[in-house]
Amino acid sequence: MAEPRVVLAADDPVLSQQIQNHLRDHAGMAVHTGAMTAITDQITCHCDGLLLLAVANPNEQVLARQIVQQLVLQRWPVRTVVLDALGAASRLGALDPYVSRRLIWPNDADRLAFLIRDFDRGRHFRFALAEDMENLLSQRLLVLTPSLLPLVERMALATSHDVTVLINGETGTGKTYLAKLMHDYSPRRQHRFLTIPCGAISANLIESEFFGHAKGSFTGTDRTKIGKFAAVGEGTLLLDEIDTLGLEQQATLLRVIETGEFELVGSTETQRCQARLIVASNIDLEKAVALGRFRADLYFRLNVLSFHLPSLRERIIDIEPLARGMAVRFARKFNKELFEIDPEALGSLEAFGWPGNLRQMENVIQHAVLMSNTPTLSARQLPDAVQEAPPQSFDDDMILGDSLHQQRDHAERGVIHRALVSNGFNRTRAADSLGISRVTLYKKMKKYGFLKESAAT
């Protein structure tokens, strides 16, 4: 089926049918339809078609505001028309600055038909449900963490095959996010995703947490406990901070990985592990092996596919999309009328060093959204330490070395990515907005790994 130009999102079946009938009779077209509750999960950040939000009751009014808020804050190129059927009860006028049109239904029915007949036929919707694995992952990463796009091909392998995956990176860099992403797109996605924070469990309890324990195995244990390896079933189990395990626990884990077998503490009955394992470490396990702190045989078993997540200070390109995505989430949580982030606030966020990485940034954005009382989040709503972060600059040594080139490449990659996203990954429009030729843009996209994410035009 050809990609539709227009999508109607409506939860009220009567209103949906009225609009479809009118557009068929007066605009000569059938529109693709979907539920408002699911639309932002189905469309992708490439969509530059026309989205019709049909609002028939006050509850849908809140949902429509949240959808518009997400599309505007995350700067998706989709154009939105609100079809307001609420009459005197409507408060949707507050959305007027952020949508292409707000039409009163059915009064403006003829205007809607004219608008759709006149709509650019070069624009379209793309649906996430119809994409292959690499494109699905690419679009998820593009929205929040574009710096991870070079990992897409290997991530697609990791999601499709039952191999153990090792993720390495500083605390708060998004290891759990990456593990959950792999689970969500794997054949096991219908099953559970569980995490064991190895560093937060004392050494004498870790095996019980892993495998469970039989009744009476410890003083005061009056019932059998099911461990995470059994509880997760055929799902995915993330072992976080695996580097904190002692050598004895490492040996036990090695046996499970090699044979798939384990026993409850205090029991001789062997059980089989059906889960897929992903492990995460805050330190370089290869160095830990060299220092005798981590078993080499276990390391080689774990390191079938490995991913390194850089710190947030090394991923400046991710800061704006992350900030926008977090702002969407917290605006919904606190019921805030927030639709934009001031450039000065984005500059402060990009200048800050983020020693606590994503976790720290999440707290900062939550604080700022909570403090906001206007449609635009400003720099003064950020914590003082972030507001006062000095702008990034080059020192004398950087001017002569490769670091300057690296910084320029980093900045150029960010500018190109923003132009592509703003133009629905249409190369012609993105090149025009950047003032460069389409050939030059193609070369830059190839250099920075954006080709798989581009539109064909």
Write down the CATH topology of the largest domain.
Answer: Rossmann fold
Question: What fraction of residues sit in β-strands?
Answer: 5-15%
CATH class of the largest domain: Alpha Beta
Radius of gyration: 26 Å
Q: Identify low-pLDDT runs.
A: 392-404, 453-457
Number of continuous helical runs: 20
Helix/strand/pairing category: alpha/beta
Largest sheet: 5 strands, parallel
**Distance between the amino and carboxyl termini:** 19 Å
Gross geometry: globular
In terms of topology, how is this protein built?
Blueprint: E1 6-10, H1 13-26, E2 32-34, H2 39-42, E3 50-55, H3 58-73, E4 79-84, E5 101-104, H4 109-117, H5 133-144, H6 152-160, E6 165-169, H7 175-184, E7 193-197, H8 206-211, E8 212-213, E9 225-226, H9 228-231, E10 236-240, H10 247-259, E11 261-263, E12 270-272, E13 276-281, H11 285-290, H12 296-302, E14 305-309, H13 316-333, E15 340-341, H14 343-351, H15 357-371, E16 376-377, H16 384-387, H17 396-400, H18 402-422, H19 427-434, H20 438-448
Parallel strand pairs: 1-2, 1-3, 3-4, 4-5, 6-13, 6-14, 7-10, 10-13, 15-16
Antiparallel strand pairs: 8-9, 11-12
Helix pairs in contact: 1-4, 3-13, 5-6, 13-15, 18-19, 19-20
Structure description:
- The protein has helices at 13-26, 39-42, 58-73, 109-117, 133-144, 152-160, 175-184, 206-211, 228-231, 247-259, 285-290, 296-302, 316-333, 343-351, 357-371, 384-387, 396-400, 402-422, 427-434, 438-448, and strands spanning 6-10, 32-34, 50-55, 79-84, 101-104, 165-169, 193-197, 212-213, 225-226, 236-240, 261-263, 270-272, 276-281, 305-309, 340-341, 376-377.
- With 457 residues, the chain is α/β, with parallel strands linked by helices.
- Strand 1 (6-10), helix 1 and strand 2 (32-34) form a beta-alpha-beta unit.
- The two termini are 19 Å apart.
